[in-house]
Amino acid sequence: MKSQSLSARSIAALEVVQAGGRITHRLERQYSGREQFEYRLWDASGARVKGFGFAALSALVDSREVERDWGAIFGSTAQRVYVARVAVAAAA
Question: So where are the chain's domains?
Answer without folding.
Answer: 3-91
